[in-house]
């Protein structure tokens, strides 16, 4: 074989290799498939296979509904327990506050009740005109203090007689009144808030 034949064989071999890469179909047409086209086909093929494959179905767990219902029932019970405890605590706080206020008022009332004879002496001194000088200043200061503590005096001449607030030590008739009235006050009464510390001592006149 000559050198020319060898060259021709090499070229023929090279052409065959090249044409094999280009994938010649049976009719001799060039059907070169690029890398991008192959990847696109593979992607479409994978998507098609994925579409054909059935999705996993969710299999219901036996007894799950009953467990959820039990949890819901327990939650409702705990909620009711919490509401009941909250209401009981609120009532407890109210009761404690009420008892504390009552205890403070009772203590204050006891102190003020002990001071009532002193206030009676001051009233008698005022009626006789003896409330002058430093004694008058002390009396005013004491009156201001007991007033801040809630002590209120009552019992004036001409007030309608109230057996729940007045202690009648004398009775008479008078044409000047249309109902039982206090015509004389021997000793004033005192209240602390809604509590009666001492009734007023009065003389009562009934209509004729």
TrEMBL record:
Q: Would you say which domain of life the source belongs to?
A: Bacteria
Pfam families (alphabetical)? GrpE
The cross-references to InterPro entries, in alphabetical order and at most eight, read: GrpE, GrpE_CC, GrpE_head
Location(s), subcellular: Cytoplasm
Q: What's an example GO cellular component term for this entry?
A: cytoplasm
Assign the protein's first listed, main location to one coarse class: cytoplasm
Q: Which GO terms describe its molecular function?
A: adenyl-nucleotide exchange factor activity; protein homodimerization activity; protein-folding chaperone binding; unfolded protein binding
Keywords assigned = Chaperone, Coiled coil, Cytoplasm, Stress response
> Among the record's GO biological process terms, what is one?
protein folding
Q: Which family does it belong to?
A: Belongs to the GrpE family.
Q: How does it assemble?
A: Homodimer.
State the name under which the record lists this protein. Answer: Protein GrpE
Q: Which organism is it from?
A: Pseudosporangium ferrugineum
